Amino acid sequence: xxxxxxxxxxxxxxxxxxxxxxxxxxxxxxxxxxxxxxxxxxxxxxxxxxxxxxxxxxxxxxxxxxxxxxxxxxxxxxxxxxxxxxxxxxxxxxxxxxxxxxxxxxxxxxxxxxxxxxxxxxxxxxxxxxxxxxxxxxxxxxxxxxxxxxxxxxxxxxxxxxxxxxxxxxxxxxxxxxxxxxxxxxxxxxxxxxxxxxxxxxxxxxxxxxxxxxxxxxxxxxxxxxxxxxxxxxxxxxxxxxxxxxxxxxxxxxxxxxxxxxxxxxxxxxxxxxxxxxxxxxxxxxxxxxxxxxxxxxxxxxxxxxxxxxxxxxxxxxxxxxxxxxxxxxxxxxxxxxxxxxxxxxxxxxxxxxxxxxxxxxxxxxxxxxxxxxxxxxxxxxxxxxxxxxxxxxxxxxxxxxxxxxxxxxxxxxxxxxxxxxxxxxxxxxxxxxxxxxxxxxxx
Length: 444
Description:
Distance between the termini: 75 Å
CATH class of the largest domain: Alpha Beta
Strand order of the largest sheet: 1-9-8-6-5-2-3-4
Number of strands: 10
Radius of gyration: 23 Å
CATH architecture of the largest domain: 3-Layer(aba) Sandwich
């Protein structure tokens, strides 16, 4: 059997058979190959057929059929359980890339129908791996404590119109926390090309339209709280973070890559950064910010890393473990010490759009709380275990299942169930009131 390569290239028929046998035998090398193949398929997603032609040339179809058979095998041998969503996702993607897609439609439909039924009627499944991060508990007394280290804060922004970035900056200004700079990632040609490859043209322009033109929430579903409503409550007349930085005389830099901010003069004291989106962070930046770079991940760590990790646990049946996790960034994907987490139950939401909007509303609040935690004298972080799996875009067929499952489970949910969603709404209103009261005292 060939050694696991960094990049998957053309494999002979004999090599492919050896790999398949190792996967069937549950051999350690077979497990490594299975994950490598899953990531290869999922990363390239809608571009898989084009990539296969470039990589495997005249043997492209043979490789795609081989990959499809591997993932069919994995699913057939786990029929009694709720399947790992990433395995089904890989199967759907590779089947789309095969020239005989329709010939396997009946098998695919059977797998999807079985998954949908199990998800609708199964009790929530516990997470396989817990990160043991502290549970987020809002405390305005903690936020306004005089025992915080006076470390200057830099905010990394994905765009000047980011509702997340504006909300974080405004809260920090309310709390009189020193801001060193705001660094905004430009929409360079390379960034546009990368996001088009990843998202596809329809999703790319949908995001551009909603976030840069409408300057609104990610989804158009109505929900009691959302990132837009938070931003409007905190900064009703601000739609561009540069306006806020000019008003408060905060240095603001637009960059092609975040490491360009290292041109700023380094303070002798420790510094800290809040990452509100915009791409990758390299080692130089992590070393520059001696107190760390804070990230809010839309998934439970260490189990769910990467993308679409709100959707993945729903497809795995982990309905009560939809999580925002705050952590300090490290060079590896979604690695680093855990600060705190805020958990949601998807059964309390009729749609994915509602859930994601309300998670988005609480991301700036969790980011600020994580900052306060790191700056507190008694700060204690939880080291993240080197476990978990990387996820990518969820296939459209699985998104359809999520929509059906969430609506049916929501309609069938028990009325006496503890409503954590209502608790989050109360927290949201309490925060806005606390900040308003604080500003009233300042004006007096």
